[in-house]
Design a protein that fits this description.
It contains 15 helices and 21 strands. With about 575 residues, it is an alpha+beta fold.
Length: about 575
């Protein structure tokens, strides 16, 4: 679940949708926003040394069946491999899906209901055990576990598992994934899904040794299949990764794995991170971090810092969801009134101004295929439209306004956005009470319907940017509302929307489907289950010794980053 506000970031998106406080804007998973790589740090990465990442909060989970946001998805690429994956951040098309553990992309049957993959030779976990089709099947089946499988929903949505299947620990083997031999794996789908290669590039579609990972086994430890393995982990403080000696570059066309080690330094105040990245001293010459805040922009105008600064475009949406199951947001007029009343320019200013954010009036951002420009709730010159908002509130019996609780993350930038919402809604008599939640548990909290309050500010990034199919369904399909890991934060369960989502999903022509997603965007915004706020760009300031760094406002590819001079790291 690709979130745009933590800099997934899908975001990574991406938990995207959304969700972490590390490097990216999260939500879900995903890649860069264009068909060509973004700007990059100068210099050529060399093998060796340690790259540091400075971040405000811990990752959501080490276990990829649980985590699903832009920052942690980027982290997972260092540890885990799947049958397919998103291309490298410096590829001609960073949004492309390419083979990873599989020899090639999948082969679909004529009816589109069966997809077959063949594994490469000489694949192994970090303990030396071979990776066969059995381990791929087992790892993927963990997505159905009711407690563990709270990450990306696409496997469960697309693969035709029995209705009562609850993962390998409860229900045993999944019968709709076949392994006729050690190298072949066959998936049976509920319905044709031409983007199934993208589904298997999700962070939870990775192998694990059969029988492992039950309960909380992977909360503080992992079994890696990627180029790095866990050396040490102090929750909320430090993660250190070292090379996985059983990973072979001969079997991996994407991950370059230049550093000998990665160190993630967590729990650092956001302002302190910026001070350190601007100063660029000591080990921080070998560091990367999240995007620069608006408050710090005037400080990076010197030629030296401008040479280091890298701008990445926006393709995530920061929005406020409104819980349609709770009064007064169960009344569409109230939700529409909020959209009319919001002064999105104040939210833009709180997000760093027009250098870092554009006002959002749609669900799908401009960089994602399927975006269509429209504005159902245009603002007046003063910002927002109080007259339209008050008329709707009066019609709904709330002429004197009302109050609600807004869930937000415990980060200054996020709180500034919430305060901007609070200020603009106060003008029409709506009182917003802010409920600040620790970043490390924020998405787990708001994605549990029993725990969420009236509204929440979050973000969503596409799980693959070539299609809007990963934007609309996760956020608005009533069939996807779950007790845990729920991304439909508005809990919208509108029959007409649900029906149209099913119809668009069945369209096999991607261009036709994207046009339909754009139309559905407007149909949903008429119901106003969310209030789009801003599309956030990002300016990043890597250390002077960093190379191969192509930052993204969704999910930065860590696997191609290295040091110019490893002797300094």
């Amino acid at each position: 679940m690709v979130d745009q506000m933590t800099a997934k970031m899908r975001a990574a998106g991406l938990l995207a949708a959304g969700m972490t406080a590390a490097l990216l804007l999260a939500g879900c998973s995903g890649g860069t926003s264009s068909s060509a790589p973004t700007e990059a740090a100068s210099g050529e990465p060399q093998k060796g040394g340690t790259v540091h990442m400075l971040q405000n909060a811990d990752f959501s989970y080490l276990d990829p069946a649980r985590g699903w946001d832009g920052g942690v998805n980027a982290f997972y690429r260092l540890l885990y491999r799947g049958l397919t994956m998103q291309a490298a951040g410096d590829a001609d098309d960073p949004n492309a899906i390419v083979p990873d553990l599989a020899e090639s992309l999948g082969t679909a049957s004529d009816d589109g209901l069966t997809w077959t993959y063949t594994l490469k030779d000489d694949l192994a976990f970090d303990n030396g055990d071979p990776i066969t089709s059995a381990e791929v099947k087992f790892g993927i089946s963990r997505a159905w576990d009711p407690q563990i499988g709270i990450g990306s929903p696409y496997l469960k949505n697309v693969i035709d598992a029995p209705a009562d299947y609850e993962g390998p620990y409860v229900s045993g083997e999944i019968p709709t994934i076949e392994t006729p031999d050690e190298k072949t794996i066959v998936f049976h789908l509920k319905a044709p899904f031409p983007e199934f290669d993208n589904v298997l590039a999700q962070s939870n579609a990775v192998p694990f040794p059969v029988g492992t990972g039950g309960g909380d086994e992977f909360i503080n430890d992992v079994i890696a299949s990627g180029p790095y393995t866990l050396d040490s982990y102090t929750p909320g403080s430090t993660i250190k990764l070292v090379r996985n000696e059983h990973w072979s570059a001969d079997t991996d066309d994407v991950r370059k794995a230049y550093p000998d080690a990665w160190q993630f330094d967590m729990g650092i105040d956001a302002a302190t991170i910026e001070e350190r990245m601007i100063a660029g001293q000591g080990d921080d010459v070998n560091a990367i971090a999240g995007k620069i805040s608006g408050a710090a922009l005037p400080r990076i105008q010197t030629p030296e810092l401008q040479e280091r600064a890298i701008k990445a475009p926006a393709f995530c949406t920061t929005y406020m969801s409104m819980n349609t199951t709770k009064e007064p947001f169960d009344d569409v007029r109230v939700r529409q009134a909020v959209n009319w009343a919001l002064d999105r320019t104040t939210v833009q200013n709180a997000s760093g101004g027009n250098q870092l954010a554009d006002v959002a009036t749609t669900i799908i951002p401009p960089a994602v295929n399927g975006h269509r420009d429209f504005d159902l709730y245009p603002a007046t010159d003063e910002g927002g439209n109080a007259e339209e908002a008050q008329a709707l509130l009066a019609e709904a019996g709330l002429a004197d306004g009302f109050e609600f609780t807004l869930d937000i993350r415990s980060q200054p930038a996020m709180q500034a956005q919430a305060e901007a919402v609070q200020e603009s809604l106060e003008k029409v008599g709506i009182t917003v009470n802010l409920n600040v939640i620790d970043t490390a548990i924020y998405y787990e909290t708001i994605a549990t319907p029993a725990k969420q309050n009236d509204a929440a500010i979050t973000g969503w990034c596409p799980d693959w940017a070539s299609s809007a199919s990963t934007f609309i369904p996760p956020l608005f399909d009533g069939a996807m509302i779950t007790e845990k890991g729920n991304q439909n934060l508005a809990q919208l369960n509108d029959p007409a929307v649900n029906e149209r989502i099913a119809e668009v999903r069945a369209i096999t022509d991607v261009d036709e489907a994207n046009a339909a997603w754009g139309d559905l965007d407007e149909q949903i915004m008429e119901l106003a289950p969310i209030a789009p706020l801003v599309f956030e760009n990002g300016i990043f300031l890597p250390g002077t010794n960093i190379a191969g760094y192509y930052p993204s406002t969704n999910m930065t590819d860590l696997t191609i980053i290295g040091l110019k001079d490893p002797s300094k790291g």
